[in-house]
UniProtKB/TrEMBL annotation:
Organism: Saltatorellus ferox
Superkingdom field: Bacteria
Subcellular location: Cell envelope; Cell outer membrane; Secreted
Full protein name: Right handed beta helix domain-containing protein
Domain Right handed beta helix: from-to ranges: 139-276, 303-425
Signal peptide per UniProt: 1-19
Keywords (A to Z) from UniProt: Cell outer membrane, Membrane, Secreted, Signal
TM ranges: none
Cellular-component GO terms for this entry: cell outer membrane; extracellular region
Alphabetical list of Gene3D superfamilies matching this protein: Single-stranded right-handed beta-helix, Pectin lyase-like (2.160.20.10)
Amino acid sequence: MFAAALTLLTSLTALLPLVQGTSDENPPPEGVTWYVNAAGTGLGTGSSADPFTNIAYGVSRSYVGSGDTFLVAPGTYDDEEIDFYGKSLTIRSSGGSSVTTIIARPMLSPMEPHSAARLRSGEQDVLIEGFRFTGGTGSYECTGFTSAVGGAIEACGGASLTVRDCLFEANTAERGGSIYAQDASIEIEGCRFTGPGTEARGEAVYLLRADAEIKDSIFEDLFYVSADIPRGGGAVVADQSTLELERCTFQRNATRFQGAHLWGRNADVTADGCAFGSSTGYAGASISASGGTLRLMNSTVRLARAIQAPGAGIFGSGADVLVENCLFELNRVEGTREGGAIAIQAGRLNVEGSVFLRNHAGQGGAIAISQSTNTLISDCRFVANAAPNGGGAFASGDSFATIERSLFQSNTALPTGAGGAVTGRAVLEYCTLSSNHAGTDGGAAADRASLVRSIAWANTPTDLAPGVMANQSLVGLPAGATVTAPIDGDPRFWSGSDFHLLPGSPAIDAAPISEGLDSDGTRGEIGAWPYVPGYCPPDLSLGLETPVCTSIASSSGEIASLTAFGSLSIQRNRLLLLTRDLPPQVPTLLLASRNQGMMTVPGMLGPLCLGSPFLRLLTLQAPSRPDGTAPSWVRLTTGGTNPSPADLTVQSGDTWNFQLWFRDSNAGAVTNTSSAVQVTLR
């Protein structure tokens, strides 16, 4: 009995250091959880019953080793300067950043700044989670005592760390007001960085030769205003580093120099799914890239304000800039400089699938390129951008651009500029330019621009300025421009703001066959938007018809079906009919009548469901398309003195019936009919 009791007592005694803390002479096994509570007494031993009261003190204990975890209770931890001493640790708050604050050791003299946490001995896989950091002033160790960096956290010497769910508020340093990483690897997740700070370049994060990922984080109210340093970024700087940003938000940041939100210097920077909000600065007031590569994807850049400097949204100098699926809105260059959304000098620019809305600059309201910048722009929309000196949307100085499948609408170069949409050396292929305005010439294009297989329509004072060249294009008022192989007629846009093509547009199937065939087997369209027979704008309606009768299957094996869509409003004049499941490329004729009937016609397989008298809308006679569709735009009029023979004269409240006749060799017949439908106009 005594021996058993002695054995049990010995076992409990061996476990006691793990419960109450331990001494330097008896290190615990790896993976221990240590406890910290500012409300404790003394310095503590790290147990749950006797927690450390200072994080730095606990980390410095020699018996604390790599793999250990510090669980920090809610409270305020001041006078902190946590040196990790090469240990790979997890430091996590139990209550989160709203209730757990780390205040760095106060700076007693300008030569004695302090970071709240320092990693400078190759620490690996460090995790810092759930704290509010404030009052940091930086440290000199990583820079060899040349400048104070990393107001809250400093990492160098090959360290790697993750910072998660932290708040950084009112920290400052010469570089990296909150975080500085040099020759290190860092991941930042779910953090918020906010000012005010005063003297930091890279007010929130500064990276030097570092690899970094920043996700789901917010950078706001950060200001770099020092007049002593000749350049600097307001929120994040990547200097000779690799940086990936995902789903981050930047707003209300400012700098006296460039990149209030983000500055890349000979860096490889990618931003995906980010929102870059209001900013103020000089070149690249929002984002700046000096050398290196900048990739911006699925992001928004709004409300950037550049003061007498180019590129309010993005400024690139000697950089490769790639933009995909982004929105640039209400960015502004104050003064005569260029590029309200983007300005690139001596670099490369590739923009795809993006929208430029209401940006403003002296030249190139949306985009300006210069100094031999090579540019490709494709599948973009430029709407209501402005530049009083020319190039309401785009301006090219001594550089060259190719612009493909893009729309330019309501851009202006007023009051004295030329090229309401585009000016300079640019080739526009398959573009649509409409309702753009210039003060002198070329509402659509001026200077050395050229159009290929494009549409320039309803621009003022003319569509093209003298010297502009257009080939295989539809141009309304070419003025002194040279137009070869022109395509004539009204392009028949859906509306003044929707540039999809209506049936019967001369732009449909107008591209040369050498350009290849569309997916429906026809030649392509000129202009920005391909023709879609069943297209209906979001503000209009599908399924406007009431069925009257069905028909009999044609040689295609299907019954040809007729549907109505668009609008029943006579004033709107957008009633469209689409017949599907026809034999390909057979003659068709749309029939209309106020009356219904049921008639069989010799040689015609299906019934004629329209009553007498009926109209043959000869102007809508056209072969079915290779995909077996036949679209028709029924042009409505209430009469007047000279109604067009292409119009159907109607009155409000009229009910009309429609049916398509078509050639069809099937079961001994030579013709057939579609189903018939009825619509009531208003």
